[in-house]
Amino acid sequence: MSGALAVSGSIRRRLIVQLLLGAAVLAAALVLLVTNLARTVAQETQDSILMASVTSILDTMTVRDGAVSVDLPYAALSMLGNVSEDRVFYRILADGAVLTGYGDLPPPGEGVGRDGGYQTTRYRDAEIRMASARRLLSVAGTPVRVTVSVAQTRDGQARRLAEIRRLGGAIGLGFFALAALLAVVTAQSGLRPLRNLAGAVSRRGPKDLRPVRGPVPQEMAPLVGSLNRFIERLTYSLSRSEDFIAEAAHRVRTPLSTVRTQAEIALRRVERPENRAALKEMIRAIDESSRAAGQLLDHAMVTFRTDHLEREAVDLCGLARDLADRLGPVAELRDIRIALSCDGQPVVQGDAVLIENALRNVLDNAIKYSPRDCAIDIEVGQGRDGAAIRVRDQAGGFPEDELDRMPMRFARGSNAAETVGSGLGLTIAREVLEAHGGRLELSNEGEGACVTLHFPPC
Amino acid sequence: MRFLLVEDSESLAAAVLDRLRLDGHVVDHAGDVEQARAFAETTDYDLILLDIMLPDGDGREFLRTHRRRADETPVIVLTARSAVSDRVGVLDLGADDYITKPFDFSELEARCRAVLRRRGGGASTERRFGDVVFDPLAGTLVVAGTRVDLRNRELRLLEIFLSAPERLFSKAKLVDRLFSYDEEVSDNAIEVYVGRLRKHLAGSSVQIVTVRGMGYRITAG
Question: Does the record bear Transmembrane helix in its keywords (chain A) (predicted)?
Fold first, then answer.
């Protein structure tokens, strides 16, 4: 019944992957933000100290003896040393001439005015940050442009930044791990109602067609609603088809019974041989059609029940005995004896109605094809490889070359042309046994056929 | 025997009544559960033939109340259903047997006989003819104090002869009643059974006489 279901992706996996991607992006953004902020803050700090140093140098500059004089305040450079171990360079220019300091420091950038300016450049194989400011001093009535530059290498800042980046990375990683954990938990708990529903439906017995009651989350309500409507339709159509089978059988068989009975009555009254032959032919045709209809309906019912196989303990001996009693009168009409022998008390797990139907079909066949005044033996026994019922008749056996073909639908032995039958009997028996995990074995033995119903070991 | 037939299809009921009366049975017909109850409560029947699908209710309902009233009359259910489980269901409800429509009357007779034999008791079905005693239910024949068990076809053949002693039965009619319609048999097949019956009846006053070219009749000399 259950065909291969195409499975594509998993909600849980998709949910987790999406949540993790989101968390990763957020963590990366966080790390970036923290390091950028740290860099900016460090930059601004360094800049303001450098500028403070520049300003304090500028403030000490005076004109003495007609020349620009500088009294480099210790504090101006030591405040830089306090910040880090970085090397500090300075240079004081007066109208472009180096007054003091490192003359080979890169020149201050364009547009450095009173308020000063900053630049990042390289000096002595190291990256430096340099702050510069200018001021005009009046030396003997002539304005002299004084430029003060203070620079510092950035190793310490880079180290601190790397530290902060590491810390930021650790925080980001922690954040990501926490988010991942939450994602898994969320996916699990979010899908729990779905799992519960699937479990509840798959735990149901084959005949349990009650609607699903819930409670289910709002999002699943449409799905469960559709499922319930589907179950309802299924229940309805199942009960309809069972009723239909019963009704169809009733409608077909009641008129057939009338015709058959009338034909039998007519046969008692009619004398002319050709009329009698015609009436007998009619009765045979009725028997054939009613038997065919019966077996088709039986087959439909058997197919239906094997699809929903219910298993209970079935006592094979009791079942065979009841059936032998039931079919006794029919067999007796032909002076056929049904002999039953039971070896032990074999019990199998299965559907008693189906097993009865299978055995009935096999026995019907045996009775139908047997010559008068003979016996049919039923042996019920428990073998090592499971219980078995053997039905042996003295009806001449199956045609050897057709043994495999016999239990196929509508197949009839080539020697059966004269007997009423539809060819479904052995098919029904085979299908019932296969549904129970057993098999139907046909063979010829002595002067008759032997049909064995093998059941699997319990 | 006295039958109650509970069957709602008028045409089928009429045919079955005709057929049973042809064999000399007394039959009442009820068309629904209500009538069936009325009949069953006022008359003693040997057997009730009960259809399952009735207009005013399920035949099974009748069966249930019938058994609740501790009525011992055996019931054979006539079922047109094929629902495999249905057959088992009616037996659980206390039916003695069931037969699927359309049915062969010889099968119905055989089932009636089997049910009555299983139930035992009841009125004796013994028949005396000449100096033999014949019990169709038990399938025995007592000839000169010796009891003989008859095979089914011998029994039915003797029953047919004894239903109308001295009457001539053609071989063809006897074959029809003794063999089912799906058996291919020649009219001469009947000779085997007449032969067997004659052997059983040897030493009694009862004789099966051959009327050359016509058939047989039974006489008590």
Answer: yes
